[in-house]
Amino acid sequence: MAKIQYQAHHSISRTLLRSVILDFYSYPTFIPQVRSCVVQEINEQEWEITLEIFVIRPLSYRIRMEEKKDGRLVWNLLEGAFTMNNGFWKLEDTKKGCDIHYELEIQMSTFLPSIITKKVQETAIPELILSFVEEAQRRLIVQQKNGLDDN
Fold first, then answer.
1. Is 62 helix (H, G, I), strand (E, B) or coil?
2. Tens digits of per-residue pLDDT, 21-38?
3. Which of 35, 108, 110, 128 has a 20 to 30 Å separation from 119 between CA atoms?
4. Which of 63, 81, 83, 78 is closest to 21 using CA atoms?
5. Which residues contact residue 54 at a Cβ distance below 8 angstroms, ignoring those fewer than 6 apart?
6. Helix, strand, coil: what percent of the chain each, to 5?
7. Measured in Å, how far apart are the chain's first and last C-alpha atoms?
């Protein structure tokens, strides 16, 4: 099992980044590994999401994501290509953007060499987070062009 933690600060608002994270249907448009995403809303703070991704080979899995009272977006694996895929996003407002705390506990149903696990930790997760941040920045530019800057 790999436990991956990532923290960063970005000059994008918490509200805008949260909206990108919760826009599950758009994942295939800005995360290259995501092939498809099917969402079932349970209620306003809880969703079941089936993702098809391509990482070395095609993988499919279903998670339940829930927004907790403390603002964390927490997910747990329901079924799929992993024996474990649990984690959370925690976004905190700052004067110049937001702090991002991301944690993932993941275990494949098949053996992965430690070099691949290390690569995921060192490059894939930071690249994934950056994909969300860049999408939020792109949406902010569109909002500003359309006069809707309520970031």
1. strand
2. 999 999 999 999 999 999
3. 35
4. 63
5. 33, 35
6. 30, 50, 20
7. 37
- Average pLDDT of span 76-102: 94
Do 46 and 28 touch, CB atoms closer than 8 A? no
What is the per-residue pLDDT across 103-127, written as a single tens digit (0 to 9) for each?
999 877 666 666 666 666 677 888 9
Looking at this protein, which amino acid is placed at residue 99?
A: D
Give alpha helix (H) positions in the chain. 14-21, 27-30, 114-119, 125-145
Phi, psi of 105, rounded to the nearest 5 degrees: -115, 120
What structural domains does the chain harbor? Answer: 2-31+67-144 (3.30.530.20)
The partner residues of 59 in beta bridges, in order of sequence, read 53
> Residue 91 corresponds to which tokens in the numbers above?
């976004």
